[in-house]
Each structure stands twice: as structure tokens, then as C-alpha cells.
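Hi L., both proteins are below.
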Amino acid sequence: MRKRMLGLAVAMTALMGVAHAQDQKVTIGVSIPAADHGWTAGVVFHAQRMAKLLMAQHPGLNVIVKTSPDPATQANAVQDLVTQGINALVILPSDPDPLVNASRK
């Protein structure tokens, strides 16, 4: 879990650095499974915490965290993030197969 959280933090920080360097508004979408047990609850907690911290430190950054209870709902959440105009996507798929088409967009 620490490796995944570290990866999420590194990805968000790297994208935040790009936003700061270019002085423009950047929106990052984060799509993760819903908190249905201890491990995913930790992922959701830390993703939301990091999103708040990064947005507080960098006013041009907007991080949208969406949780989904199943792969079909997660595919819809990814499509919703795309329609919101995200610049980058951080995703932890519950099942990658249903998310292939949504991720390509």
C-alpha cells in the first residue's frame, strides 16, 4: 500500500510541478475503488488528504478524487472526469478490462 500511495503522491507532485512552472490551471482526476475494506479505505483517505494538501499549496491546481464501488461505475467516473476537462488522470483500477476504453479517452 505504501508503494501505491507513494506512486500517487509522486504523480500528483510531478503534475503539480508542471502546473507551477507554466503558471496555468491544471486539473488532475483521480479514480480509485470505493472504501469497501481497510486497504481501500486507506487509499481513499490518503488520496483525499493529498488532494487537499496539494490544492492548498498550489492555487492553480484542482484535484478531483472519485471513488467507485465496481468496474462499471469506475469506467463511468473516468468518462465523467474526462468531460470535466482533466489534464491528467491517476487511476487505480479495480478491474482493468472494463476501463480500457474509458482510459484511452
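That was the first. Here is the second:
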Amino acid sequence: MTPEDIVFVKAIIAFVLVAGTGMAGFWLWLRARARVAPDLSKVLDAVREENAQLGADLSARMAELEERVDFTERRMVQEREPARLPQPPKARTPV
């Protein structure tokens, strides 16, 4: 074997090691990416459920506030006798 052949074999071994490491990293990245997809659907379902719950809570609170406003409007419309200040006592003059 000549020194050029030895250099060529070393270059092939180095290439196989680097390419193998790169392919292994790429394969691990693909597997990790495939595992993330189902988790996103679970998170999305949880967010949708929370959104529905918050919407229902908001609707209930709005209904309660509307009832309070209606009650306040009815109370304001009712006729009441206006509050009057007490009449000052009539002054008596000595006779």
C-alpha cells in the first residue's frame, strides 16, 4: 500500500464517521419532531376547552350584569316622593 492509498482510506473513514453522525442526528431530529405532533393536538384541545369554559363564564357574568342594570333602571324609574328638608320652626314673637 502506498502512502496515497493510506490517506485515501483515512479520508473515506473520516467521511463515513462524519456522514454517519450527521445522519444519526437527522434521524433523531425526525423522531423528536414526530413525537411533538400528538402533543400539540392535546394542547390545542385543552386550549379549546378552556376557551369554551371562559366563554360560558363570561356569558353567565354578562347575564348577571344585565339583570343588575335592569333592576337599577326599574328602581330609578319608580316614582318616589322627593326628599324634603324639614321646615324651620315658626318664630314666635312675644306679645
